[in-house]
Amino acid sequence: QLQIFVDETPHEVPFKAINYLTGECNYGGRVTEEQDRHLLMTLLADYYCPVALEPGYALCLEHQEFQVPSPGSYGAVLEHIHGMPPVVPPGVYGFHENANITREQGETYRMMDSLLLMVGQTSGTGDSSPEDTIRKIAHDILKRMPEPFSLGGVQAKYPNRYEESMNTFLIQELTRFNQLMTVMRSSLEDIQSALKGLQLMSDELEHLFQCIFNGKTPTLWLTHSYPSLKPVGGYISDLIERLTFFQNWVHKGMPVRFWLSGMFFMQAFTTGTAQNFARKHMIAIDTVTFDFEMPREQGPKERPIDGVYTHGLFLEGCKWDWDLWTLSESEAKVLFVSVPLIW
Predict the structure, then answer these.
(1) DSSP state of 83
(2) How many CB atoms lie within 10 A of CB 141?
(3) 3-state secondary structure of 284
(4) Using alpha carbons only, what angle is made at residue 339 by residues 333 and 342, rounded to the nearest 5 degrees?
(5) What are the pLDDT digits (tens) for 78-99?
(6) CB 222 within 8 A of CB 228
(7) SS3 of 296, please?
(8) Which helix (H) or strand (E) holds 70?
(9) Which among 131, 114, 118, 109 has a CA at the least distance from the CA of 212?
(10) For residue range 223-232, what is the model confidence (pLDDT) as tens digits?
(11) Can you give the pTM of this predicted structure?
(12) Is the CB of residue 280 less than 8 Å from the CB of residue 306?
């Protein structure tokens, strides 16, 4: 197709048509998200453009050695390509230099997973056996885990009210966390009993044993949990922080700032926010859409008249410029940064 376009217009390269054909049809036809298709067209604009035909045009300003070959024979073009560095930096493809770190991390994680499958559970930590290690970890987790929430008491303190949907959301969240804690507590007590020989080590408990010993969050927990990619140690610490947030909500009242990423099912939170606004202003909820801004005041003391203050989100691939109050390029070797308070 590219050759046909070039042959039909020998005096002028139809860059607009080539960009549309490649970005919107050949590749763009497989891209469902509008933002991803916009990114694709932006990347293609660096390759399908009149400047690319000028001598010395570099695909990346930071790496001038990657230049478009000068017009010449087939052999000359191949020689030019062979003269390029064998390792292509991510900037040539339009990525930030931090993309190398992400790729190398992914390769390392896959390699460690393969090594763990090969090693198995042949040794413990120090002088302790694998069984002793799991026994200590299970005891530590059970010791740190709080008691389940008293849903009856919370329901009495935060009853269902037409004008406050957050009370319903709170009960739903606590119910989900109670179910998760019940599964975790039951499985840890079962594996302690199995290690003592008081019950059989089932396939499920064996898998739980292997996951905890390898530092992974057990699949049994994740099936009843919020989405998480953390190892088991980070998962437990994160869970304790989430439970602390909701315990403060129960005992001290509705917070001024909501920890958005600390919620079990944040779609219910956004729905409750929309319901509160629609019922307050007596409009149909179907007509309500979300808008947001990052207020300069990042430590509010009172809840807003409309909407909610949220925090706990992160940016990847960019950063927040606190001086210009806008998005900007990421800093080198910094993959994730916090998003400011959102209203």
Answers:
(1) T
(2) 19
(3) coil
(4) 175
(5) 988 888 888 888 888 778 888 8
(6) yes
(7) coil
(8) none
(9) 131
(10) 999 999 899 9
(11) 0.78
(12) yes
